[in-house]
Amino acid sequence: MAAREDFLAASLSRIKPSPTLAVTQKARELRAEGRDIISLGAGEPDFDTPDNIKQAAIEAIRRGETKYTAVDGIPELKDAIIEKFRRDNDLTYTRPQIIVSTGGKQVLYNALMATINPGDEVIIPAPYWVSYPDMVLLAGGTPVFVQTHIEDGYKLRPEALEEAITEKTKWLIFNSPSNPTGAAYSAEEMKAITDVLLAHPHVWIMSDDMYEHLVYDDFRFVTPAQVEPALYDRTLTVNGVSKAYAMTGWRIGYAGGPEKLVRAMAKLQSQSTSNPCSISQWAAVEALNGPQDFIDEARKVYQERRDLVVEMLNAAEGITCHKPEGAFYVYPSIAGVIGKKTPDGKVIETDEDFVTALLEAEGVAAVHGAAFGTSPNFRVSYATSTEALKEACTRIQRFCASLR
Length: 404
Known about the structure:
By secondary structure, this protein is α/β, with parallel strands linked by helices. The protein folds into two domains: 10-48 and 294-402, Aspartate Aminotransferase, domain 1 (Alpha-Beta Complex); 68-289, Aspartate Aminotransferase, domain 2 (3-Layer(aba) Sandwich), CATH 3.40.640.10. It has 13 helices and twelve strands.
């Protein structure tokens, strides 16, 4: 009997594979073929996980911490997260308000799957992290995109948020510092956003703070529930150890929020992955409770790299690069190269054309802006060595100069 053509779930047709992961994989494949490739696609620190965190994991293995744990995280990690929120964000939570998941992505996914009903709208400022819209669609909701602009530093304007809110709005997904733009909101800018939300009590806030510790030039990070305590009961504050502690592969994300919501997320997690890796949880305890000097050391290097990349990209013909406040990305506009031709006669009509031609001509892999909802742009991750960044930016300058 022939297999049914409609075997796969219809919901899969609503989403697409992650473009950022696709670019990273393409770079790996070209390297394996012997090409000289510099990848600026991955959102992953190039630093190694600090030794004290590795050691904590080794000791956990030797203690036999290799069994199932509570679905939503071990008490020791929950306590470390509670203390982190108190220390860094002036937020007070109890253990039932904390969930630990297999990376920040699962935290966000669980929250959306546990709350979205057909017809619910989720406001997503654009440019956005590539997974936000697809997770909303998979949950059966409707993403509502609100464009931000380079002249505003890619920050959401309060009046644009106000205009996007309807009676169907369930969530605002808010990411500061932002992936892909690096835009971060000051306390004053954040208050302008939270003031809008105060007037709409049916709208919940999903605050993705994953890049919290990666801010530059004496910028002070704030999170929505910290700036406006009246929003505490409808805010899910999401974070993780991946970016700040160079622990991407350990897969630990966490959140603090209303107990009813956290219970629902844990219920969903109990029927999917169950608990996050036990060893990774003990490593995360050390990351949050142990010495924090690694963060400052990494931040200084990232700031130097940001300044280098912004300067060199702004020197490339047709590129305008805004200097962001945080994360480890820049999101240059390539409006000045659209319509130009490569030496072999190909017309650069879109930002996808640009990154494809750049990869072919110069061996530099980056992600096109359409993947993040705003064109014509591309995203550069400067979480790679300074030497590689200099060479990559030199190649981008050369490529832009070759266009006619």
